[in-house]
């Protein structure tokens, strides 16, 4: 490595001039996009999201047609009717894809804390909150696009399997439309929730552990407890937690217990949690030493 | 221009920086010298708005850092060579940093060339050596062509060529009228690079003066005398106003008399001298003496060394011009 280059460039003006460079939100947004796209972990988690969503759709489609082909009824699959099976097939992967999306959201922040990058970020954007806002916009937008693409791919790859039994999604029903949009909205909210958790906890391991507990273990355990005991308080609890309330926007009617919170009310609960954690993250980020 | 007034940082019961006030002027290289744990990095982080002061204020070019409209063009900082995501390439790191201020890609290429990182720019930072990490940090600091540069331990991990490069770069940037504030725990390094030195120990400013004053003021000249008549000669010298210490029988370390004076005195009494060596303490010794009471993590041997003051240097006579020795 040569140490002979000394001058900071021929174009370097003297120290007394005013610089043409300006810090602006649009610039910070661009910076966060560059940071986001220049990490391998981003492409890994996005790839896994798509693979998981499409893969589970294919698996579920195969199961559905197999049951249907053996003369089974919707009841055999624990469902009231064949309405909505098509959409369920397309969106079924969400509960696994949410883990990939959660890791993506958390790593966007915790990756900076674990490597020390956060000090570079906050030196460049000393007011700090624009950096957080830009991160959330980038993570939210990319998650929304990626999950929408995954849902579209799921529809395309399962169409030939389901069309023989007339089980393909029927986008004319309001329920189907809601579930479809809901899957994208739910996963986007999970990603933003995870960014906020990342800011609050700063550690990758801590954040991912927490997110897996909140979005996977907790709702699964409560679902089982509720199924076994049927206790009202368990349902009340589930109706107020981010995962089990939020996922109603995907599940809605068919798979849900009759006492479950409504789809949009449930999504509002998740949005409420996300907003509250984001506010807490903003306060903490602004106050804490980097 | 950096102005700190009563800057204080406490972490729980521990005070890392204790009411520090100093001014760093443009057009000069100001060295920030202190042992590990003295509060250098904490002070620099407070200047950059990364740590919130418990009390006091610090401004850069007239304003708190965070209030500048384009902070990277005001201040470029190397606070920590590891303040980079290890999974990203050096080029993409600089590109992202530049993007926050709308700094063009051309400038990114410029700083890469300036710091000699061309061959590794597209490689991921995780595989960088400490020296390459330092160069990337310096590249990052130069991105905005800033009026003020803050460099925390910039020569850490650099090879001799790199050390020389940083030294010349700092001097060049100051000659352009920029403010350069550079920390080190090596007195010799700072003495070679800086025009002005601020010495910090245990969170307090110990000295704040031009480099020449600090070096002269802190340096002690002693004479090593070996003689079979040690006891008598010591008494004679002491009664004459000199200070005498002794590490072993027949060896005296004399302060306050030059070699000629001691030789004449001994000759007048008929004392045999086996050795008469003038010793100038090294800069490191001067610095040790300066910060003796404010070293955070003191070892047993360091305490003994400090206890004997400059006499510790007598093991090997070390003239002042052997500064390079400290870059080992």
TrEMBL record, chain A:
Q: Which residues form a coiled coil?
A: none
Q: In the UniProt record, does the keyword Cytoplasm occur? A: no
Q: Signal peptide location in the record?
A: none
What would you give as a GO molecular function for this chain, any one?
Answer: ABC-type transporter activity
Q: Which is a Gene Ontology cellular component entry for this protein?
A: plasma membrane
Instruction: Give the superkingdom in one word.
Output: Bacteria
Q: Which Pfam families match?
A: ABC2_membrane_2
Which sequence ranges are marked TM in the entry? Answer: 43-65, 85-111, 132-159, 179-201, 208-228, 264-285
Q: Which UniProt keywords apply?
A: Membrane, Transmembrane, Transmembrane helix
Protein name stated in the entry? ABC transporter permease subunit
Organism (species)? Cellulosimicrobium composti
Query: Taxonomic lineage per UniProt?
Result: Bacteria, Bacillati, Actinomycetota, Actinomycetes, Micrococcales
From TrEMBL, chain B:
| Keyword annotations from UniProtKB, A to Z | ATP-binding, Nucleotide-binding, Transport
GO molecular function terms attached to this record: ATP binding; ATP hydrolysis activity
The answer to whether the entry has keyword ATP-binding is yes
Tell me the Pfam families matching this sequence. Answer: ABC_tran (PF00005)
The answer on whether this UniProt entry bears the keyword GTP-binding reads no
> What PROSITE patterns does the database record attribute to this sequence?
ABC_TRANSPORTER_2
ABC transporter domain: from which residue to which, for each copy?
A: 2-227
InterPro entries (alphabetical): AAA+_ATPase, ABC_transporter-like_ATP-bd, P-loop_NTPase
Q: What is this protein called?
A: ABC transporter ATP-binding protein
Query: Could you tell me where the Low complexity compositional bias lies?
Result: 311-320
The segment annotated Disordered runs over 300-328
**Family in the record:** Belongs to the ABC transporter superfamily.
């Amino acid at each position: 490595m040569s140490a002979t280059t000394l001058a900071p460039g021929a174009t370097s003006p003297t120290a007394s001039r005013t610089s043409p460079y300006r810090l602006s939100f649009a610039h910070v947004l661009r910076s966060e996009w560059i940071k986001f796209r220049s990490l391998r972990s981003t492409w890994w988690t996005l790839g896994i999201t798509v693979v998981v969503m499409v893969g589970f759709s294919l698996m579920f489609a195969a199961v559905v047609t197999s049951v249907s082909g053996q003369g089974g009824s919707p009841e055999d699959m624990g469902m009231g009717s064949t309405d909505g099976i098509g959409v369920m097939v397309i969106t079924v992967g969400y509960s696994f894809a949410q883990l990939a999306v959660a890791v993506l959201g958390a790593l966007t922040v915790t990756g900076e804390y674990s490597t020390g990058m956060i000090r570079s970020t906050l030196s460049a954007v000393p007011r700090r909150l624009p950096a957080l806002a830009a991160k959330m916009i980038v993570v939210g937008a990319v998650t929304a696009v990626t999950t929408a693409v995954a849902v579209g791919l799921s529809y395309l790859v399962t169409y030939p399997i389901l069309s023989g039994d007339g089980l393909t999604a029927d986008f004319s029903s309001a329920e189907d439309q809601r579930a479809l949009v809901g899957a994208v909205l739910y996963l986007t909210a999970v990603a933003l929730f995870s960014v906020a958790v990342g800011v609050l906890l700063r550690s990758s391991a801590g954040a991912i552990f927490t997110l897996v507990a909140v979005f996977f273990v907790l709702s699964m355990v409560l679902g089982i407890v509720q199924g076994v005991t049927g206790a009202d308080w368990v349902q009340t609890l589930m109706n107020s937690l981010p995962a089990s309330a939020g996922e109603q926007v995907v599940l809605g009617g068919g798979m849900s217990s009759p006492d479950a919170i409504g789809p949009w009310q449930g999504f509002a609960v998740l949005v409420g949690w996300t907003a509250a954690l984001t506010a807490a993250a903003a306060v903490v980020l602004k106050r804490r030493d980097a | 221009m950096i102005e700190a007034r009563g800057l204080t940082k406490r972490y729980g019961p521990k005070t890392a920086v204790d009411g520090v006030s100093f001014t760093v002027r443009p057009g000069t290289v100001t060295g920030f010298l202190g042992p590990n744990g003295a509060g250098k990095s904490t002070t620099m982080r407070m200047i950059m708005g990364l740590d919130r002061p418990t009390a006091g204020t610090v401004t850069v070019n007239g304003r708190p850092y965070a209030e500048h409209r384009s902070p990277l063009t005001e201040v470029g900082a190397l606070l920590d060579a590891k303040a980079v995501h290890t999974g990203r390439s050096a080029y993409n790191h600089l590109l992202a940093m530049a993007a926050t201020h709308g700094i063009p890609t051309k400038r990114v290429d410029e700083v890469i060339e300036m710091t000699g990182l061309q061959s590794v720019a597209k490689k991921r930072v995780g595989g960088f050596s400490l020296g390459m990490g330092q160069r990337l940090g310096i590249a990052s600091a130069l991105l905005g062509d800033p009026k003020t540069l803050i460099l925390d331990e910039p020569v850490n991990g650099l090879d001799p060529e790199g050390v020389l490069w940083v030294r010349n770069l700092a001097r060049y940037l100051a000659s352009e009228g920029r403010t350069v504030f550079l920390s080190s725990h090596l007195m010799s390094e700072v003495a070679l690079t800086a025009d002005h030195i601020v010495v910090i120990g245990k969170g307090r400013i110990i000295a704040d003066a031009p480099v020449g004053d600090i070096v002269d003021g802190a340096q002690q000249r002693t004479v090593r005398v070996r003689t079979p008549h040690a006891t008598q000669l010591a008494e004679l010298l002491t009664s004459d106003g000199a200070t005498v210490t002794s590490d072993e029988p027949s060896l005296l370390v004399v302060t306050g008399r030059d070699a000629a004076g001691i030789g004449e005195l001994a000759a007048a009494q008929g004392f045999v001298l086996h050795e008469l060596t003038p010793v100038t303490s090294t800069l490191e010794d001067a610095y040790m003496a300066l910060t003796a009471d404010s070293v955070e993590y003191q070892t047993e041997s360091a305490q003994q060394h400090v206890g004997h003051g400059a006499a510790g240097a007598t093991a090997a006579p070390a003239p002042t011009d052997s500064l390079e020795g400290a870059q080992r």
